[in-house]
Amino acid sequence: MTKAIEAALSRLRAGDPVSRSGIAGSGLGAELTAAGVGFAAVGGPLEERWHRALAELEQCVRPLAGGAPVLNEGGVYAGAWLESTGTINAEVLARFAPGIARETHLRFAEHQRGDGMIPYKLTDDGPGFSQIQIVTPLARTVWRHHELTGGDEPFLETMYRAMARYDDWLARFRDTRRTGAVEAFCAFDTGHDLSPRFWFAPDRAFRGDARRCDPDSPILPYAAPDLTANVACQRAYLARIAEALGEDGEPWRRKARASVAALYAQCFDPDDGTFYDRDRSGRHVRIQSDVLLRVLACEIGDEEFFTRALGAYLMNTRKFLSHHGFTSLALDDPRFDADASRNSWGGPVNLLSLLRAPDAFEHHGHVAELAVAAAPPLAALAAADRFPQCLDPWSGEAGFTSVYSPSILWFLDTVERSFGILPRPGGEVWFTGLPPVSYTHL
Fold first, then answer.
1. Do 189 and 231 form a contact (C-beta atoms < 8 A)?
2. Is 229 helix (H, G, I), strand (E, B) or coil?
3. pLDDT tens, residue by residue, 264-291
4. H-type helices in 283-403, by residue range?
5. How far apart are CA 25 and CA 27, in angstroms?
6. Three-state secondary structure call for residue 91
7. E-state strands within 114-185
8. How far separated are the first and last CA of the chain, in Å rounded?
9. What's phi and psi for 23, nearest 5 deg?
10. What does the DSSP 8-state code read for residue 41?
11. Which helix (H) or strand (E) holds 350?
């Protein structure tokens, strides 16, 4: 063991990850060099795969319609999406490429529409406004970037003003029943492509206008738990940002408490102990999906509630814990479809969902359970031929698309969380020493 450690240290100190990854001369390469990032592992494919991840991540950094290079979603997705690229992806990227992450955030604020809506995506063709597609709270991502980089008041001010205007937009247009919950008008509002959650619902908002719900829909709008939890968490972090800028944060906290109350009143089923959409007739849409994980990742619920959710759902192998990560639909749902060869949230493990998961587990101190769930998909990606969007929950085989930035960033993030050094917002540094494992079914 001592010889292996010495060999790893020697390789780490002598290594040049930027040159080895072939990204010298790039903006990402320059930021990695400035951050002093490196990784070494003795035996197995992990070290080579880590460097390959850097090479493919660089392919996901490019300008959009001019301007400075920003993070792109990658794979078949040409552009940046607010639900992922502009939030959780940029948050992870900020640990070693804060400049690119900052530009990615600012680009969304730059293209905010006159009525306050922030685009759900940015491409070379311009901003998109046909749905909202909000999952990870943008304000938390912005706040963590601010903390991690030692403070950037102009950045914080710009993003705060944009997010406050978007909060007004959501209150105006996405609470048509005046319940206090945030409503989904279509499947793409939550990014739940091919999920039974949205059977008989359109993909996009009515006539491509995110302010309008199809008046002839028998089920929409939904009072949506993940959208409502997102706004609750968003408002709590807007309170922190307001106070950092010298303003009163209490109005935001009151709004956050109102959102939490609406979430439980409209979407929580105490018998099942989970959250469901409430349709236009007032009935719960009893489909168990990764909505629960999303709600918990928005810091909803106390320790007792989270522990119950772990046992009943997240770590339950009849519900969401497949051998290769958390599934996008409950395993015991008769509509569960494990086909990972397409963009599907109807069953397969989605790497974007895994990237969001630490915010649910770590908020309540359940890092051990997260490590158990993350080890097999990490082993699967270490041996895969690409960085896909989806994994087969049974075999761990790589599925739909490649060079996908959430998958790449999840791999880099999980290496840091499992056996690396993890910088935390606020100045903490976590050191973890779990040995890599390989799970195979031969």
1. no
2. helix
3. 999 999 999 999 999 999 999 999 999 9
4. 291-297, 303-309, 351-356, 358-361, 367-383
5. 7
6. helix
7. 121-123, 126-128, 183-184
8. 27
9. -120, 20
10. -
11. strand 349-350
